């Protein structure tokens, strides 16, 4: 049996996520820090967008705004689903719960019945190729396996559709903040491939933060480069149908180096 999520959705009439003229300022007065300014970004349903930029340029702040964990100081943030999923560098699994119960957690919090949530959780573990590990607790799993459980849990959150107005659905949305950064190179490479497979199987829109240009070019349909702080979109690359991604990797790396150099002078 091959596990897949139900991709049947009403044809969307709005983006999965959109930021228009967004600015975010922390603090007030002389101590205020402007993290983002004038950010315009549109993510289409099912699109995979990678965000690149120097450390401290506001990438995580942007994800927090999309997740509804913070509000912009100026501008508007529109997310089609009221339950975007978030995946961080650390899997943040509950150590006393088994893998399947960790995946069930967002479904349980949403009031999904026991049998339905268990069935969905098992299906998602199969999707991330952990169907034989359902009863193991996090300490019994490798780092890569724990991240697979976290991915399955994030996907579980996207299956809970509590939006109103079905005709305006923009689809599922997953926000990923350097989820593979703490893993060794081989495990990271494997999980990049797994994420790409799962994304294609589920049709979930993804906003993926990374410092790794190769990772961005491998995974993304579009790569978005943010300036040094205050962060704003300075360049985008459309990778759909691109044959020579190696050349694009070099081009994007050059632009990222310019941004990092500017960030260093600003600091």
Automatic annotation (TrEMBL):
<dbReference type="InterPro" id="IPR003439">
    <property type="entry name" value="ABC_transporter-like_ATP-bd"/>
</dbReference>
<dbReference type="GO" id="GO:0005524">
    <property type="term" value="F:ATP binding"/>
</dbReference>
<keyword id="KW-0067">ATP-binding</keyword>
<dbReference type="InterPro" id="IPR017871">
    <property type="entry name" value="ABC_transporter-like_CS"/>
</dbReference>
<feature type="domain" description="ABC transporter">
    <location>
        <begin position="17"/>
        <end position="255"/>
    </location>
</feature>
<protein>
    <submittedName>
        <fullName>Sulfate ABC transporter ATP-binding protein</fullName>
    </submittedName>
</protein>
<keyword id="KW-0547">Nucleotide-binding</keyword>
<dbReference type="InterPro" id="IPR003593">
    <property type="entry name" value="AAA+_ATPase"/>
</dbReference>
<keyword id="KW-0813">Transport</keyword>
<dbReference type="InterPro" id="IPR050166">
    <property type="entry name" value="ABC_transporter_ATP-bind"/>
</dbReference>
<dbReference type="Pfam" id="PF00005">
    <property type="entry name" value="ABC_tran"/>
</dbReference>
<dbReference type="GO" id="GO:0016887">
    <property type="term" value="F:ATP hydrolysis activity"/>
</dbReference>
<dbReference type="InterPro" id="IPR027417">
    <property type="entry name" value="P-loop_NTPase"/>
</dbReference>
